[in-house]
Amino acid sequence: MLRIIVFSIFLASLSVDAGAIDLFKKKEFVPFDYTAWTDTARLNSSCGDLPAVYPKSIDGTAVFTGSVALPGIKGECIFAAAMCHAVETMNPETEKIEQADYSGNSFLLFQHDTRGSNNTETAYSRHTLIECGDGELRYTSYDLDARYREKGIIPRTLPFEKLNPADNPRHRELIEEFSCVNASEVKAMADFIKEHPDLMFHNTAAMSKGKVTEGMTELEVKVLLGMPPAERKSGERTRWIYSNDLIIIFTDGKVTKVID
Q1: Are the beta carbons of 99 and 125 closer than 8 angstroms?
Q2: Sheet containing 230-234: which strands, arranged edge to edge?
Q3: DSSP run (H or E) holding 180
Q4: What's the domain range around 247?
Q5: Contact 103/79 with Cβ under 8 angstroms?
Q6: Are 173 and 181 in contact (CB under 8 A)?
Q7: Do residue 60 and residue 183 come from a single domain?
Q8: Are residues 150 and 247 in the same domain?
Q9: What is the 3-state secondary structure (H, E, C) of 37-103?
Q10: What is the pLDDT of residues 84-122, one digit of tens each?
Q11: Residue 2 half-sphere exposure toward CB, CA atoms < 13 A
Q12: Residues 71 and 185 in one domain
């Protein structure tokens, strides 16, 4: 359900109001056809020892999709471990979990990655929908932007739909680089899940409301609030200090008091 809602909203946001005044309309462009290009272009089939995945075009939108087999692990455990990995590795200043469907085992991430430095620096932002089923993790990345330098020193930002990797070598480099970024991050998430196959949420009804309640586990609080800036331990009690106005107290790993 989250996939349908999120992707439908995104595609709808791309439409142009037919009643807009022509004078103020921007010149329309034809989105690059990644499906046709990837079927004929000679692209790297791997990123090191990782398989490379390239975008396809869906209704004019560049989309990366793929899946990872995780045999023997329940969907709800894959979901919990994937969210835990996302929270532990994301930069809270530029990345976040935007939505979560705790009954459907899926969540939406906004991701931002930077590669290189100075004149070679590139940055990629996108939304990624993670869907978890028994023995499988599926991902769909869309709303992709690349910030890069092509000529001169001033960086520019373009959506993937406006890139032209068939004719522009720099644009092709961006697509191939992002393919490796994507492959590396998917592998890291899959490896984390394999290392933590038994993680699970036990208070999904409360989590869906977005508020910490007594009885929640450290994992559940971490997913809701992120990693605490400060932590204090005293015997069986642990304090997660998010601010002077928000402190979560755990006893034996479960929330026993919320100070806010």
Answers
A1: no
A2: 230-234, 237-243, 246-251, 254-259
A3: helix 169-195
A4: 204-259
A5: no
A6: no
A7: yes
A8: no
A9: HHHHCCCCCEECCEECCCCEEECCEEEEEEEEECCCCCHHHHHHHHHHHHHHHCCCCCCEEEEEECC
A10: 999 999 999 999 999 999 999 999 999 999 998 877 889
A11: 20
A12: yes
